[in-house]
Amino acid sequence: MNAYDNAMRQLEKASRLMDLNKDVLARLSAPEKVVMANLPVIMDDGSLKIFEAYRVQYNSARGPYKGGIRFHPQVNLDEVKALGFWMTIKCAVVDIPMGGGKGGVVVDPKSLSQKEIEKLSRAWVRAFREVIGPYKDIPAPDVYTTPQIMAWMADEYSQLVGVPSLGVVTGKPVEFGGSKGRGTATATGGFYVLSAAVSELGLEAKHTKVAIQGFGNAGSVMAEQLEAAGYKVVALADSRSTIYNPQGINIKEATEHKIKNSSLSGLAGSQDMLPEEIFSLPVDVLIPAALENQITKENAASIRAKIILELANGPTTPEADEILRINKKIVVPDVLANAGGVTVSYFEWLQNLSNDYWSEEEVASELEEKMSAAWSAVSVIAKKYNVDLRTSAFITALERIAKATLIRS
User: Fold this and answer.
1) How many structural domains compose the chain?
2) Do 220 and 299 belong together in one domain?
């Protein structure tokens, strides 16, 4: 089953439970618009290369389309459609007035020079300029796209329309219209949701053991925030190894070791394990913060954590989800847990439109309010329908999308 089939299966399950309006279901069963283009780029050696590109505008019932652009060799239309659908759900879960979209270019960016990546980024904007804009469709960074790429895209669009239009994309450098707090927003949003979940379950931070799979930007920032709040981070995993210390890992030491050795393996005081062993450790909270499809039917039954917080996108397969549900595990789904990124992207857009920029403290305060409210809404719906949090998050989003759709029709 591909990503889009999986997304539609999630839609069907939630819509059946809540008896979603059939017209709304029909609208959400396909994107509103799919735009494809071939991007011509003159390479450094003077040759011309054509790159296949997409923009899926999935749903705009609640506002302009919002969603990232990924540069990846495996990009395909079904994947982009699925991601556009999930962005529609994610924006509605955190109750920001935006719809969902997604873009992609079939390319291995590691094989391109910086100048070639800039040309490709500007070519993408030229190809899609008629369908994007600060009030129509606001892209953002995704896999292998960066704040620098967003700056090139904003600059290209501004040149094309003849006026400064920084609000056409988000995720830009702070020096070029970006928002403070954007770089840590995914982890910070997840931290706020976890804090709410832990509080509701009656757990205390100092007695809560956490394992984090993935020690990139989101995972490392989450580890720092958990340590500062008194949680005991006892396990970390990167692509090569898992390290475990039941007494707690010093995150600053782990970060320095990772930078120096390009691996967590060998950190003094910690036990080295195979990467996959992180899933079966005796912890209270497991945070997958790496790639998709990490929790599978093969390892789900061995998970001992009470809470799984999905900081990564799609880390749990549908088959694993069912095993976790039967085993009474609390899975805080990605469309809620990692929505801090798109929430601060929305804040950045607001700041661009008003030309009034917020302090880091203001961003953090607004983010905490949004994420805490989202957790509360999803938690209430879970109890109302007696469903897991993933299904509840979808129902929460679909109720909001349905109301906007029916008001407009």
Assistant:
1) 2
2) yes
Residue 356 maps to a domain: no
Locate 388 and state its tokens.
Answer: 């897991």
| Structural domain boundaries, residue 142 | 31-164
pLDDT digits (tens, 9 = 90+) for 305-337: 999 999 988 889 889 999 999 999 999 999 999
Q: How confident is the model at residue 269 (pLDDT cuts 50, 70, 90)?
A: very high
Nearest residue to 71 (alpha-carbon basis) of 109, 123, 34: 109
User: Would 98 be classed as within a structural domain?
Assistant: yes
**Helix 185-200 crosses helix 340-354 at what angle (to 10 degrees)?**
130
Q: What are the backbone dihedrals phi and psi of residue 281, each rounded to the nearest 5 degrees, phi first?
A: -75, 150
Task: Give the strand pairing for 65-72 and 307-309.
Answer: unpaired
CA distance 279 to 157: 45
Residue with tokens 């897991």: 388
Q: Is 299 in contact with 277 (CB distance < 8 Å)? A: no
Q: Which amino acid is at 84?
A: G
pTM of the model: 0.91
**Helix or strand holding residue 286 (H, E):** strand 285-288
Tokens of 224: 């720092």
Active site residue ranges: 102
Q: In whole angstroms, give the CA distance from residue 185 to residue 338.
A: 9
Residue in 77, 71, 93 with CA at minimum distance from that of residue 310: 93
Q: Where are the alpha helices (DSSP H) in 263-388?
A: 318-326, 334-337, 340-354, 360-385
How many angstroms separate the CA atoms of 260 and 252, rounded? 12
In whole angstroms, what is the distance from residue 212 CA to residue 119 CA?
37
Nearest to 210 by CA among 255, 263, 254, 248: 248
Tokens representing residue 293 in the block? 């499809």
Note whether residue 409 is domain-resident: no
Nearest to 55 by CA among 83, 29, 24, 93: 83
Sequential DSSP letters for 147-180: HHHHHHHHHHHHHHHTS--GGGS-S--GGGTPPT
Q: Residue 269: which H helix or E strand, with range? A: none
Alpha carbon of 41 to those of 45, 127, 259: distances in Å?
A: 11, 12, 35
